[in-house]
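It is worth pausing here to work through a concrete case rather than discussing structure prediction in the abstract. The textbook approach is simple: state the sequence, then state the predicted structure, then interpret. We follow exactly that order.
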Amino acid sequence: MVLERATEVYRRASHGRHLTAEQREALVKPLLPAVPTPATTTTTTTPERSNSPVDGPPALGPRARRTTRTTTRVQQLRNLIPRALHIGLYHVIHLLFALYLWCRQTYHAWRDRLFAILYHHHRSPELIQRDVKALSRLPDHLSVILTLGASSDDDGGGGGGGGGGRGPGRRRGRARARGRREALAVLLDEAAEIAAWCASAGIPTLSIYERTGRLKTCIPDTHRAMAAKLYDYFGTRRPTLHLRAPHLPPHLNGNGSVEEHDEEEEEEGDGSLPSSSPNGHLSVLLISAEDGRDSLVDLTKTLAEMSQRGKLSVDDITLDLVDVELTENVMAEPDLLVLFTPYVELQGYPPWQVRLTEIFHVQDCGGVGYQVFLRALHRYAKAQMRFGR
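Step two, the predicted structure:
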């Protein structure tokens, strides 16, 4: 309202002439804020420094200041006590859990040592047969999951470049290559040991799952290691060995076995299987992650294409058909799956083949061991298979 009135006055007074400075000041003076006085400025800006009882609140005395400080300390102490209790309870829980883990690991370590003393195969098939003789049943198909060493999975990174880095780069490359060879040698030895245990216990079929597929890429070396291990256990009367992998040619005793151990065996002239061994026959299957979900995806695509082309009816695609195709192309469902890890981790194991499989693992397991193998067989013999309708 004031602005409109001032604007009207300006318009009436400015016709034909200019306003003076005093007139312009008088025109805008009602619109300006009041000029603060020095007393008001002192009171508003620094009220705590004023000693006048009129300009601000009275200053606190020594007793009041001590009371304020005491109240602040009490409040801080009240906030500190719950935090200290929470931190102390947190550390107590961690301490108790660490103590429990230590006791459990110590117990399992001593128990494994005791079992290693009481039940040791000494590379004797007779002792292994004695250990499993009292079992009511044995699996016809045993499957295990093995893990390649971490050093062999590190294929790159950190290599030396040109110039002065060539020497360290070569050394790191040689170290990585040596680590990969050592890890593969350990993996081959573990697979060969398990194959010898299965042959000694009378288990006819063994499937070995290794996620990266390194065993499948060196089937001749795997066959050679298994044949040598069977020779250490059985001598010249070792069982016949059949090693294969999905979509790869198989290796038999007469095709790719250890030559120095095969001299005492008579082989067929056409390279076929040798005569049957009195210690039976062992069939070993090597599988990897590509034989799991990828096989299901490929089978689904194949069935869909055949259905679209009219070669296969939709009604013919059943669970039985999928089961038959996966059994022929990959493997049949194992009766027992043994994990040599302290926890259950299938690592991409074929999911279709473990629907009714008994899975066994040992807490705080330190790796592949005969005690774990034997305990798995005992657990399988006591397991109740309830398949339902």
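Step three, interpretation. The chain has twelve helices and seven strands. The two ends are 92 Å apart (CA to CA).
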